[in-house]
Amino acid sequence: MSPRRVLGRIGFYTLIAVVLAFFSVPLLWLATAPFTSDPTYEVSLPDFTLANFRAILEHPYALGSLYNSLILAVGTALLVVLFAALAAYALSRVRIPGRDGLLYALLLLSSIITGTAAMVPIYQLAVELNLIDTHLGVILILTGGLLPAAIFMLKDFMDTTPKSYEESARVFGASPLQIVRHVVVPLVRPGLATIAVWAIANVWGNFLMPYLLFSSDPENQPAAVIIYTLYTEGGQANLQLLSTFGLLYSVPVVLMYLFVSKKYGFRFHGGIKR
Amino acid sequence: MALATSPPEAPAPPDRKTYSSDAAGLGRVRASVFAAPALLLIAVFLVFPALWVLYLSITNYRLSGVEARDPQVVGLDNFFNALVSGKFWNSTWLTVEFVLGSAVIGQVVLGFTIAWLMRDRTGPLKRLVEGLVILAWILPSAVVSFLWVALLDRDGGTLNLLLGIPGFAWLLDYPMLSIIVFNTWRGTAFSMMLYGAALGNVPPSHLESARLAGASGWQQLRDVVFPHIRGHILTNLLLISLWTFNDFTPFMLTAGGPDGKTEILAVYVYKEALIGGNLGVGAAISAIILLINLVVAVFYLRLLRRKS
Amino acid sequence: MSAIELRGLTKVYPGGVRALDALDLVIPDGEFFALLGPSGCGKTTLLRTIAGLETATSGSVVLGERDVTNIQPGARDLAMVFQDYALFPHMDVTDNIAYPLRIKKVAKAARGDKAREVGERLGLAQLMDRRPGQLSGGQQQRVALARVMATQARAFLFDEPLSNLDARLRLEARTFLKRLQRELGVTTVFVTHDQAEALAMADRMAVMEAGHIRQVGTPAEVFQRPINTFVASFIGSTPMNLLDAVVRGDSLEVSGCKVAVPESAAGLLTDGEKIVYGVRPEYMSYSAGPAEGALGGKVSIVENLGASHLVTLEVGTASVQAVVPEGREPVPGDDGYALPRADRALAYRDGDLVAAGRGGTEAGA
């Protein structure tokens, strides 16, 4: 090896080491503190206690909030997948007048109307419709926000699915609904799964909407809000609770990510996260 | 189809029953029924709020008090008030700093660097680096915010321990720098993956012919790689700018403080409208955010169209 | 099983593209019929309009005695094999073959039996539990055929049935398809862009161009007496020689050579008229020495076709090609003479064949 190459190698590994440190150091605490008896902000070798998890069980809202997160995520994902699939299929296969304009508008809407820009009227709307402090309210609002991008991604997916499958079934006498049931749904199942995972990941981590709409009652608040309350309110933060709860709250997303990347090789969609 | 050229011997009879000719025989009526629920939800929970913002922004609506019951249209007063207030401009400037610093510089440069370093590699090192970067991206924002609160803590924080400067208050003394670095850490994954995919599409033969011609690493980047991924860079810049511009996560780190030093527009709207109760003023700022989003999004969509 | 009849069938796409222009065609019961033409000529649109996947703008499609123009594709009693076979990837071979029966609400056991019976007949017995993704192209094609055979359809429609197979398999499949159609005796219409496929398989064929049927006839008729210069140049693996000619009394002048007037055009040409003289390379006899009525010139190219050679002669300003049997081929630079067979040579005036009876059935006749 020439000296130049040696220098290049050294430079490369130094750079990689810096990147690794930058991305891993903030995460270390999440890995150690939950298993440490009396955790501080300091990262230290844990004594591998599970006592902190017992403390979680005793907390009045912790487990309930994970359940709330689950309801929000699954509820939203179901609505998004169902409605987006129906709309995307119709838009992909039938030339409804004004279709292209509609799609363009959808794409535009999904990128410009963000929680940040629309939080005031969304809050008011929820008040007017009696949806404040309800799961349904947050689910509907999040569904409305995710649908345009979901329709767009699914339509893309369906456009690449050959029409000959449906036409073939049609020549054999299948009705439109039979075609959808027997042929289309099984064919686009990977696309539906992708959208479901995408929606779940989005809702699971979403903070702003539940923070706005579950203002008072911690019974209904999802994990994102509870964890924020835990470290901003009541003087000294309870690190035992925070670290353990943070870990429990994180594990499902990580597992889902691992599952998706193993099964589908992590297909890269432009708007996978907003 | 009343075309002048249709054959005279066979005009379509008026009662001719045609059936839909799309692939599944769905027909327009059924297709509209299929699309209706999605469009309804979008209309109520996405489009209506956006339009409502525009209306609110010209009223003196408040969360409570007389104006809550009987709001008055005040024209463009809210906009004038926002545009002459120092707070609005301060917040706008902080937002520009935040977007430029964390997205345009931080995420793009770091994301591209990692993608470039890892371009020809496979194996555990690549998986480790990419896994960590992506982990920072997929963890819930409430969790990562607190991880950074812990990292930057004045007394026991890991960063001060590593640097050997206990007692240094990052979030108080350098709040803007903190959230910029935080957001760089948080969002680099997207740029890394996008550039990784883009670099994978640079034809190896182009790089090889440049190498045969004796081009250095930097020359290969400049002459072969950048021209190939120019479109990706632009796409990436627009998307992450849009996302960062609308990001509410820094609120969880600093809540806009200390003393308004990290009060980016997203946080400013929240404080003005929902804490301060000035819905009209908040809506005016929201309307400005919508407008900026619109400009960026239209630019992005035109770019997409030109590519296809 | 039914005949298929098209009357004034027209398809205009939104935007004004006339894919089919007032087509008339009769395909008798039991015939193996080819729709042949270059891409974009409307042949696939025609097939899809017969199937009902495209709605006709005007005109009608009649199956047997029944006008099906406005009837849903599923109610037409037709079966179709798509170019990509359209086998459902999430169903195994049995379920794929049985799918049409499932739609007709045949009990599960009965349709399984039928699927196995048909599958066995096509040599798929060992593959019945596989998914389409685990089959070769040829096997997939047979599954698609089995699926249409399970339907009791009145006619079969094949869209480019061989185009997804590789070259060697294609020849085998050609023979297989022709035998199968003969055994089943079901009226079958297939679309192809490959003239060799149409000639080899079809009982009769229609040559299409730009939404019109240019010629209908048996492969022999279409090959020997193309009705116009488009069909003449489209049919045949070596293109027909089409040479500018002037009528000089009772013979023709072609590139400075004197050749006999084609028999089919005898008495139909006027002196001094400019025509196009057409003769297939296969219908030329080649010699190294001068011959009466032959086209003579220098050999420029010799292409090996296997058992024969394609020789290109430079005759004046024109290039003339002739097929020369094995062992008698010249080398480039030789002098050569190609003598057209007067009973196979043709004359075209303004692109149309000059002939008394105008062989074959012309479209619309």
Automatic annotation (TrEMBL), chain A:
PROSITE patterns: ABC_TM1. It is a multi-pass membrane protein. One of its GO terms (cellular component) is plasma membrane. Its main location: membrane. Keywords: Cell membrane, Membrane, Sugar transport, Transmembrane, Transmembrane helix, Transport. InterPro entries: BP-dep_ABC_trans_perm (IPR050901), MetI-like (IPR000515), MetI-like_sf (IPR035906). Pfam families: BPD_transp_1. It is found in: Cell membrane. The chain crosses the membrane at residues 12-31, 70-91, 103-123, 135-154, 191-213, 239-260. Residues 66-260 form the ABC transmembrane type-1 domain. GO terms for biological process: transmembrane transport. Belongs to the binding-protein-dependent transport system permease family. PANTHER family: INNER MEMBRANE ABC TRANSPORTER PERMEASE PROTEIN YCJP (PTHR32243:SF18), MALTOSE TRANSPORT SYSTEM PERMEASE-RELATED (PTHR32243). This is Multiple sugar transport system permease protein.
Automatic annotation (TrEMBL), chain B:
InterPro entries: MetI-like, MetI-like_sf. It is a multi-pass membrane protein. It comes from the Bacteria. One of its GO terms (biological process) is transmembrane transport. One of its GO terms (cellular component) is plasma membrane. This is Multiple sugar transport system permease protein. Belongs to the binding-protein-dependent transport system permease family. The chain crosses the membrane at residues 33-55, 98-117, 129-151, 163-185, 273-301. The keyword Cell division does not apply. Keywords: Cell membrane, Membrane, Sugar transport, Transmembrane, Transmembrane helix, Transport. The keyword Ribonucleoprotein does not apply. Pfam families: BPD_transp_1 (PF00528). Residues 93-300 form the ABC transmembrane type-1 domain. It is found in: Cell membrane.
TrEMBL record, chain C:
One of its GO terms (molecular function) is ATP hydrolysis activity. Residues 4-235 form the ABC transporter domain. SUPFAM superfamilies: MOP-like, P-loop containing nucleoside triphosphate hydrolases. PROSITE patterns: ABC_TRANSPORTER_1, ABC_TRANSPORTER_2. The keyword Mitochondrion does not apply. This is Multiple sugar transport system ATP-binding protein. PANTHER family: MALTODEXTRIN IMPORT ATP-BINDING PROTEIN MSMX, TREHALOSE IMPORT ATP-BINDING PROTEIN SUGC. Keywords: ATP-binding, Cell membrane, Membrane, Nucleotide-binding, Sugar transport, Translocase, Transport. InterPro entries: AAA+_ATPase, ABC_transporter-like_ATP-bd, ABC_transporter-like_CS, ABC_transpr_MalK/UgpC-like, Mo/tungstate-bd_C_term_dom, NA-bd_OB-fold, OB_MalK-like, P-loop_NTPase. GO terms for cellular component: ATP-binding cassette (ABC) transporter complex, substrate-binding subunit-containing. The keyword Hydrolase does not apply. It comes from the Bacteria. Gene3D superfamilies: 2.40.50.100, Nucleic acid-binding proteins, P-loop containing nucleotide triphosphate hydrolases.
